[in-house]
Amino acid sequence: MVLVFAEATNGKFKKAAHEVVTYGAKTAAALGTECVALTLGDVTDAGDLGRFGASKVYNLSAPELATFDGSVYTAAIAGAARQLGAKVIILLHNSTGKNLVGRLAARLDAGSVPGANAIPSTDGGFSVRKSVFSGKAIADVSINTDYKVISLSGNSIPVEESGSAVSVESISVDLPAAKTKVLETKRAEGITPLPEAELVVSGGRGLKGPENWGVIQDLADALGATTACSRPVADVGWRPHHEHVGQTGVAIRPNLYIAAGISGAIQHLAGVNSSKTIVVINKDPEAPFFKAADYGVVADLFDVLPRLTEAIKAHKAG
Amino acid sequence: MKMLVCVSKTPETTTKIQLNGDHSDLDYSGVNYIMNPYDEWYALVRALELKEAAGGSVTILNVGPADNDAVIRKGLAIGADDAIRVDATGGGSLFIAKQIAAQAKAGGYDIIWFGKETIDYNGSEVGAMVAELLDVAYVGEASHLEMNGTTATVTRDIEGGIEIVEVSTPFAISAAKGMAEQRIPNMRGIMMAKRKPLNVVAAEDAAATTSVKSYELPPAKTAVKLIDPENMEELVRLLHEEAKVI
To answer: Model confidence over A201-220: pLDDT tens digits?
Structure first.
């Protein structure tokens, strides 16, 4: 059996939860078994996960699960897996997942693949592909143990509907006391976080200063995109660090990445080269980023970005 | 405060990745190695700052072969007191975590530091494994930490925001950007590092739970399509009709 941990934020599922259930259903199909989903805490409409291929949805609710604690969540997920007889455990490679994959693997003495980006291969064993070297290569990793733990990178596979809503069954697991105490959780409202964003508009040193970021923001607003920046821009404080994409910043894999005024150093490319489509705007035709781009515009970004913003608005107005 | 900082050796960030003949491994010829930046810039430096503020010790731990010693010496040059290298090659994440856990248990550390991920395997799982093996708290991708006695207030990065948590020693933590600023070792540090103890210990028996079957390189990009800067309507059309991303 394949057990998928579908994380809800404030009781609701995001697209990533639908991706991970889709992934679990496809993994179960490859193994000739069923996929069940596990939700923790108060969740609205958990049975809806059946639409993405979960044959059953289990919910574990307990006061200890109200805030995140790695030990408590691990006990919940591993306990549910043991109770249900699930040998493959799948979760998302997000901040929650990264706190859990290692713990689950250690607890179950399991082989794990963190950050998988394709459905496992069951051809002669069990192996899962993941990107390594920040996207500069792909490794096919064999898991040699009975229990297997996989975390899926966001935006790696398309969401697919293959069923309909199912019933939700309660499950109970003994939980330990939390080892961390959450004091405060702060999220920017109304903005899709970079790791989950499908559309990203990014600026570099070519913007010349933080006061010029309006041209990036306007384009992002027109597209409904999230804004990002290169490392030098974050280092000098033009933009906040959490916007820095690249090898030592956030690694992203959006459908569309528009880079303006970024030359494309190898460390920057490493964090963005998993983007499906890359548009580069730079007035230097020799900028190395053009070699990694699908579409390029050789021109002054201060001329091009407002024009692109208008064209996007016209397109949206249909 | 007794602290253990776990460090990895990784190819440097500008390395062009190439594969060997049968794609079973990388072609390591000409590759330059560094200490994994998250381990060095953030975990190690914050540990040193805490020691400078409140006393204690900082021990570097690496699981790897003898040619990792240069990277370990760099950590000593930056300011760690001593180092342990568990003599092993490969083994996978859980194997490495079990080696670290054994050393951590023997040493009785208050804080066990990691970088948020290695820039080669991008796993970010070993810290959580060690925490589970030791049954202690773990905070992943932490960008800020303040100690108050044996209690730490830690900020961790979450999607689109932060979460502030409180943990008590002993705990494990992985450091992300924001935790500290990179330190360049000075000549005195480099000279002193040569005399600091680097203890090599044998690995414990543990099974490899994973192994890399093969590697491949991402498909090469086709040549860039240049768009007339005066005609952004054409770019929008291509993004909509050809790339199908808007």
So the answer is: 999 999 999 999 999 999 99
Return the HEC string of chain B: CEEEEECCEEECCCCCCCECCCCCCECCCCCCEEECHHHHHHHHHHHHHHHHHHCCEEEEEEEECHHHHHHHHHHHHHCCCEEEEEECCCCCHHHHHHHHHHHHHHHCCCEEEEECCCCCCCCCCHHHHHHHHHCCEEEEEEEEEEEECCEEEEEEEECCEEEEEEEECCEEEEECCCCCCCCCCCHHHHHHHCCCCEEEEECCCCCCCEEEEEEECCCCCCCCEECCCCCHHHHHHHHHHCCCCC
Q: Does A314 touch chain B (CB under 8 A)?
A: yes
- The interface residues of chain A toward chain B in range 108-137, judged by CB-CB distance below 8 A, are 109-115, 127, 130-137
> pLDDT tier at A97 (50, 70, 90 boundaries)?
very high
- Determine the average pLDDT of the residues in B178-201: 96
Tell me how close the Cα of B83 comes to any Cα of chain A, in angstroms. 24
Q: The whole model's pTM is what?
A: 0.94
Whether domain B2-216 has CATH 1.20.1290.10: the reply is no
**A194-317 placed in CATH 3.30.530.20:** no
Answer yes or no: CATH 3.40.50.620 is held by domain A2-170.
yes
Q: Find, in chain A, the residue whose alpha carbon is nearest to that of B41.
A: A248
Partner residue opposite A105 with nearest CB, options B94, B215, B230: B94
Q: Where are the domains of chain A?
A: 2-170, 194-317
